Amino acid sequence: MTPETILDAETKTLWLDMFRKLVRIRHFERSAFELYTAGKLPGFMHISIGQEATAVGACSALRPDDYMTSTHRGHGDTIAKGVSVEGAMAELFGRVTGVCRAKGGSMHIADFSQNVLGANGIVAAGAPIAVGAGLSAKKRGTDQVVLCFFGDGALASGPIHESMNCAALWKLPVIFLRQNNQYAESTPRTDYQGIPDVVEWAKGYGISAVRVDGNDVLAVYRAVKEAAARARRGEGPSFIESETYRWYGHNIGDPGTWRPKEEIQAWKAKDPIPRFRKVILENGAATDADLDAIEAEEEARLQAAIEAAEAAPKPKPGTALEDVYVDPDLGAQAIQGVRP
Amino acid sequence: MTTREIMYREAIRDAQREEMLRDPTVFLIGEDLRDPWGGTYKATQNLSTEFGNERVLNTPICEETIIGASLGAALTGLRPVAELMYFDFVMRSMDAVVNQVAKVRYMSGGQVKVPLVIRTQGGGGRSSAAQHGNSLEAWICHVPGLFVAMPSTPYDAKGLLKTAIRMDDPVFFIEHKLLYMTKGPVPDEEYTIPFGVADVKRKGDDVTIVATSRMVLFALEAAAELEKEGISAEVIDPRTLVPLDEATILESVHKTNRLVVVNEGVERCGWAAEVAALVQKKGFGDLDAPIERVCTRNVPLPFQPDLENYVLPSVADIVRAAKYTLGKVE
Ligand SMILES: Cc1ncc(C[n+]2csc(CCOP(=O)(O)OP(=O)(O)O)c2C)c(N)n1
Ligand SMILES: [Mg+2]
User: Running DSSP on this structure, what letter comes out for residue A6?
Assistant: First the structure.
């Protein structure tokens, strides 16, 4: 983008929406981190701060009726695809107003009203589901596409490979997007992957593949937009390697300090949010004041969401037995136990 | 004999360390085992520093290959100890576990030994939700060809793991995420614990409580509660589920005439049902009351803590079940 570019209204709206979502996710995860550390949120939590541009760029390139699968580090992905901060925050708190009614928690945020087919606690488990959704779109004759997020470490897992092969074989509208945040738990690439260039690897499946700067929201947007267009034309799956970084440890509790300090600093300097702010300003898409106002709005909305979540009722213990089966009678019969 | 108080995870680490020192064919394989990470629950801490990255092999995220490759190594002269980070991820390796590891000796007409230990950890209680808190011991016990250990204390964990590593048959070794930080005395001297020998964790006369893993701690708490009400409970930890020390359980029931079986897997088709079936068959005449089971309810584990507590067995549930066998619950 050069400063002389004249932006049409549509692009301006898109950019401001993407900026808003970047900020929304950053604020959400900052707060989640603090609330968790303060002992207010149960369970395990994986934070994606630093990776927001990948989530937002990719999901902004989709239509609302497109599908998405995510991972254990799914706050950003799911919010970018349309999960509300209210529903997500209440879920982290384990309240009845949570998007999964307190059954799922941080690792299992799903919202079928937004075609978010689920975050996932099992590495690589989203990929076959994405293939199935792509198969379904094709069989039903829609032009919906499926965005399948997975981590760099997940690429070593069998299901990713089986899924890429099936998607290529059946020419399915699936976009495999690897969020390469450089580590799988504690393990760097050199310990889990024999060849450095996964783009060439993906091409071996007969899948069109590119690498993007995952901290450049517009680059991710363009790559996914192109992949989606190809998928809608019936030209099959794509693979996108999105290079980014998670600022924090694997999960909250791991300080992540086992990584080189300089590496963490270098990536923090590539923070996707100030970077996009600069692009917006240089292109005259908005003023600093406009962007500050967006930040303030998002922060206010988030604070309200946190207050609402904290104030919302916890589920009644007995509701643990709900939502297992659809069939009420057979379900009750199946769940019944003998504990006195 | 001098003893030290150590954590369960240290007991697991020390057992692996001692066996690695003793036998150069022993090696560790799994995800994120190396220092400084030292295993997700730190059960391999310092071992890669001491023994090097070749003997503490970090793998990609590939559970089926971890187990399949361990089998290949076990069949060809090595003695692998494989770690699967969560019991829930064992599901990814089930073909290797069930169709390969457990059966290769039998299918080959007894030609080979399979000196392989698969370590994993399960259990709820941390709001880790439906994919990180499973207790699937019954699945594993259901597979002929595997031995299954499920220790509850640092002492048992160390002694059983050392035995497991020396055995020539595949052992599935189940730890619990909420036991890793618990402490207990362990002797400085070397020791091992044989498979198939239960440990009576508390003596009692009125009711027998058989429990496994973290549920042993719950059963002991329940026994203390019951004592306040004048009920004397005997708590038995079988320590290995396969083989099972039937005699210790049957002797106890012969004395108490009542049995409560507690395990953390879901109730339906669970391990407790197996024990109940055993005792009704071989100890029928000793029973004065129906056998009670206290297990996880027949639903996936929910995230929210109140929901999770409702679904998992509790100390109160065990107390109630014990009183039930004594006709003391209205
Ligand atoms: C099948 C399976 N194996 C292991 C794990 C444990 N685990 C959770 S996240 C993770 C690392 C994933 O790395 P990556 O795919 O790079 O995603 P990131 O955490 O970096 O976002 C591991 C090993 C799991 N959840 N599922
Ligand atoms: Mg990663």
Answer: P
